[in-house]
Design brief:
Blueprint lengths: L1 H22 L7 H20 L1 H11 L5 H24 L2 H29 L9 H5 L3 H31 L3 H32 L8 H54 L9 H5 L7 H19 L5 H13 L4 H22 L19 H17 L5 H6 L1
Helix pairs in contact: 1-2, 1-9, 2-4, 4-5, 4-7, 5-7, 7-8, 8-9, 9-11, 9-14, 11-14, 12-13, 13-14
């Protein structure tokens, strides 16, 4: 069972580590982020060391039988301490978080030292990668070793269960609340592993064995750990999905604004601060898309300012009447009218014939106090504007 579940758990840990390492350079001053990255690294190592083939390779390489036991368990103790560091920094003021972090890391280091001392006193000579605990459970030194490990493990998982659930109820972010509750459930599930290991110590003292519960112990340990790893990753994955969706939306907006921007550029080339390759094609650059979209919005607004003297009151009234007749209303109506106004104003600007009665753009009635809101308004205008544009064959190829 162990060799079936551990590779799955190892894969989950490595996937999580990959996501966290991606943002680590930008968050190198973030103690909680560094600690969380360490959790996934240590978790991956603990599962790797415990897989039977790796267990034997470590023995053969280092010349010490069953050395994978203290290595894997030390990684588990260290990652439990790092999880508490994450919680301390997420849920406490900086000064208290630093004190708590030192306490947890110091406690973890003390437990790891004790495990290695007891292991080398035990010096287990028979290689047992699949049933180590059952084979050595009757040895008093190993009983002490296992008691130290499982006491630290159980205390840390119990604390994690309660602390994550409590912190989740205080978090304003939905993704963090969900993630912490999954961590809490996962930590609670791992207590099944603790119960079996505590039972192994008691059973050995009574001269019996819990061999029939081994699979249950590994199932609880691995499934609980997988849930914990997934829970810690939920806020990170949510943020990355949101960033990806935002990036895709900006690229779409850049393409959508192109026909409107190109019309202004032809009539008023001076709106462009520094022409570049993407000016002609409308293809967004691979980097700096946020700036490019913002620049495109500003240049379109500059174009509107340039042709404002050529806005015709009659064009606006006629456009409003036509669009109302087909059922448009609200912001969509204002966007459609503005597109008609721009088209007529650009033509009048080219001919140099100002109207008899001037007016203003209909989209002035749409509130857009934020750049994102302004982008939404102009995207709607561009959509209506593009419906009546017929690109030349050359433009079609370029786009």
């Amino acid at each position: 069972m162990k060799d079936l579940l551990h590779p799955i758990s190892l894969t989950v840990a490595l996937v999580g580590l990959t996501f966290l390492l991606r943002d680590l350079p930008a968050r190198r001053r973030d103690t909680a982020w560094a600690a969380l990255t360490a959790v996934y690294l240590l978790s991956a190592l603990s599962f790797l060391f415990s897989i039977s083939s790796m267990w034997r390779a470590i023995d053969d390489t280092l010349g010490t039988r069953n050395l994978a036991v203290p290595l894997a368990m030390s990684c588990v103790v260290a990652l439990l301490a790092c999880q508490q560091v994450v919680l301390s920094h997420w849920g406490s003021p900086a000064d208290r978080a630093q004190r708590m972090s030192r306490y947890w890391l110091g406690s973890g280091a003390a437990v790891i030292s004790g495990l290695f001392v007891l292991f080398f006193l035990l010096t287990p000579a028979v290689q047992r990668p699949t049933d180590f605990t059952l084979y050595y459970a009757h040895d008093h030194l190993y009983a002490t070793y296992l008691t130290l490990y499982i006491s630290a493990y159980t205390f840390a998982e119990l604390y994690l269960t309660m602390a994550c659930w409590r912190l989740a109820s205080r978090s304003p972010r939905t993704a963090v609340r969900i993630g912490l509750r999954i961590v809490s459930v996962g930590a609670a599930v791992t207590l099944g592993y603790s119960a079996v290991r505590i039972g192994d110590v008691i059973a050995a003292a009574l001269g019996t064995s819990l061999a029939g519960w081994e699979d249950f112990a590994w199932i609880c340990g691995d499934i609980g750990t997988i849930l914990t790893l997934v829970g810690w990753l939920v806020p990170t994955l949510t943020a990355q999905v949101q960033r990806t969706a935002y990036w895709i939306g900006l690229r779409r907006a850049h393409r959508q604004l192109h026909p409107l921007w190109l019309a202004f550029y032809r009539a008023v080339p001076e709106i462009v601060l520094t022409p570049n390759d993407s000016t002609a094609t409308g293809r967004p650059p691979t980097q700096g898309i946020s700036f490019q979209v913002y620049r495109r919005v500003v240049e379109i607004r500059d174009g509107q300012t340039a042709v404002r003297p050529y806005l015709d009151h009659d064009v606006r009234e006629d456009s409003e009447r036509r669009h109302r007749a087909v059922g448009l209303s609200g912001d969509e109506l204002h966007a459609a009218i503005t597109a008609d106004q721009i088209r007529a104003a650009l033509s009048a600007h080219t001919q140099g014939t100002p109207p008899a009665r001037s007016t203003d753009f209909a989209d002035q009635n749409v509130e857009s106090s934020h750049p994102i809101e302004d982008l939404t308004v102009l995207s709607a205008v561009a959509r209506h504007f593009a419906r009546h544009e017929r690109p030349t064959a050359r433009e079609d190829v370029l786009r």
